[in-house]
Design brief:
single chain, mainly alpha, 6 helices
Length: about 110
């Protein structure tokens, strides 16, 4: 994830095979690569595309929402982060991500 080469490979795959059944996975990996390279805005865009994609595995949603919320915080877009944290808590209340979301919201309100 932590190299420009990996990021470029995912971008090339997505450009060449945008409708492939592995495109969502490539987009997730692209987002993680961008995050690792501190390309926060690009990572947010990638993860938002994943969240909007109907082919995204629903079991991945809590993790993807959490990562995106944390990226919004890094980008100082706190309102968007709070919306996603609340989404996780509401829609995935028994997940480990909901516990992390609660902790993150509590630390913001101190």
């Amino acid at each position: 994830f932590r190299s420009n080469a990996a990021k470029e490979a995912y971008q090339t795959f997505l450009h060449n095979f945008p409708s492939d059944n592995k495109a969502v996975t490539a987009l997730i990996n692209l987002g993680y690569s961008q995050k690792a390279l501190n390309e926060i805005t690009a990572a947010i865009d990638s993860f938002n595309k994943v969240l909007e994609n109907k082919q995204t595995d629903p079991s991945l949603l809590p993790e993807l929402l959490l990562v995106t919320a944390q990226l919004y915080e890094l980008n100082h877009t706190n309102h968007s982060a709070e919306l996603l944290y609340n989404n996780i808590i509401t829609n995935f209340p028994n997940s480990k991500e909901a516990n992390i979301a609660k902790q993150n919201l509590q630390s913001k309100n101190k």
